[in-house]
Every structure is written in C-alpha cells, then in structure tokens.
Amino acid sequence: MPELPEVEALRAFLTDHIVGYEIVRVLPVAISVLKTYEPPLAALEGRTVTAVARHGKFLDLDADGLHLVTHLARAGWLHWKDRLPDGPPRPGKGPLALRVALETGEGFDLTEAGTQKRLAVYVTDAPAEIPGIARLGPDPLTPDFDEDRFAGLLAGERRQIKGALRDQSFIAGVGNAYSDEALHAARMSPFKLTSSLTEEDVHGLYVALRATLTEAVERSRGVAAGRLKAEKKSGLRVHGRTGETCFVCGDTIREVSFSDSSLQYCPTCQTGGKPLADRRMSRLLK
Questions:
Q1: Residue 283: is its pLDDT beyond 70?
Q2: Which residue has the higher pLDDT, 88 or 163?
Q3: C-alpha dist (Å) from residue 230 to 4, 6, 74, 140, 209
Q4: Cα–Cα distance measured from residue 269 to residue 235, given in angstroms and rounded to the nearest whole number
C-alpha cells in the first residue's frame, strides 16, 4: 500500500510534470472507483492544473479550483505515460481504472490490482469535505508536529501502539509498512500499550517515526513514479522481510499474521527476545 513517503513522492513528481498544463480528457474505465458524481469527471476537461497536494495518503490535483482527489488504497498505483496510447481505453477485467490526458500528449493511468477494489476517485471543489480527509489526524512531517503534540495524542489513547500508528484519524499517512519500520527503529513491541509508554518511550518513538518517514521521503525524492514501489521495498528493514536477518542484531525477523494483513518485527530488538503469538489478539508468550 502506498503510504506517506510514496504519495509525497508522487505529489512532487506530478508537480514537476503536470502543473501549468491543461487537462484535455479524463476517461473512466472502472466506474466503481468514482465516489462522487457531481461535478462530473468531464468538468475537469479544459482546466489547467495549478497545484498538486497531499492529505495523508490522498493525492489532490487542483485544476483551476476543481480537485481530482485519489486514494490509491492497498493495490492502486499511478503510472505516468510520456505518450498515452491513441484511442480511448477499453473497459474490461484489467487493472486500468482511470486515464488522465494532458494537452502535451502525456498523462497518467490509475490502476488497481487484485479483486478487492478500494481505489477511490473524487471530483470536488472542497477536498476537506471528503470523509476520509475530514477525519485525518495531524501530518507527522509538518513543522508543528513536535514531540509535545505527539505525547498529547498518545496521552488520550489506550490500545496497542501498532494499531494507533496505523489509525489515520490519529496520525495521517502512516500504514502497515512504516509503522513496522518506526517501531523497529524505536526498539518497541508492536503490542505495547500506549497507556504504558514512559516519557523515554515517547521520545524514542517520536524520533524514530520522524526519522523513518523523513529518510523514506528523501530516498524517494526524484525517483520516477514507475520505480517508487521498488525503492520503497529496498529501503525497508523489517517489513516484508520475514525469515531474513535483522541488520541490527542478527536475529531472525518474525511475523504475526492477521486475516487481511501481517506485521514484521525483530524479537531481540523489540520484544526482549520473546516471539509474539501469531494470532489476532496476541500477547507475549511467557
């Protein structure tokens, strides 16, 4: 799933490639991705892109005050085309969901792999009114997201820290991968309760979270849209690396699987050497 660093990289890439150019065509292929119907997609045609913004994991293209907002969900992606194919795309069972064509002949496709169709596209003059954006918590890379603010957010929570970090209404933009990475860097169990965090814990997690996201954004800076997935995977130290060796201590990276996701962690670095039981409401094995 694209998270804050990848969506931020897409924002920067699109800013360089589409701002100042006119949208000549918006072609829906999978109608199911459209979550709004008024204004219609065609209302974007003839407008010039003036800015590209990010709200958590949402990507926002401003076209003369009308916004094309996208959430790529788990299996969605944006594919840049230096030259779009001639003719309209054909509806079918493929991954293509939406095509945006510019006056230059360039443009991009939105695609979604798999059977769980969660890619979402909105056309609106008020992005803040989109439900997913309206409920977003603070962005962890903004200047005003300091340690005191982070501590204040945690003070009102009583749940496992992994779940808190992934909650978009708590902090915007962090998902399964970068929560694993931040918790590993902070040497903290994903099942540690927020109510048990000490001041030292909060400080360590804040530093780890900011550093993890900042480093990922820097790695992605200037990377073409088509290479961002590979760049993300290459920079991950525990997430998606079950069975591999922890680069910090040499222990074997373990996994806890759930019905629709999994987390990865290092027992030596994060849980005092004890493996976590691999079930949904797991506790440390005694």
A1: no
A2: 163
A3: 15, 11, 16, 24, 21
A4: 18
User: Bridge partners of 265?
Assistant: 254
Please name every residue paired with 245 in a beta bridge, in sequence order, or none if there are none: 252
Question: Tokens at residue 184, please?
Answer: 């590993």
Q: CA torsion angle for 234, 237, 243, 249 (degrees, to 10)?
A: 140
> 39 preceded by cis ω (within 30°)?
yes
Tell me the CB-side half-sphere exposure of residue 69, using CA atoms within 13 A: 25
Q: How many C-beta neighbours within 10 Å does residue 256 have?
A: 20
Q: What's the rounded Cα separation, in Å, for the pair 204 and 75?
A: 32
Q: H or E element: which one contains 149?
A: helix 147-155
pTM: 0.92
Pick the residue with more confidence: 93 or 192? 192
Span 241-260, pLDDT tens digits: 999 999 999 999 999 998 77
Cα 41 versus chain centre, distance: 24
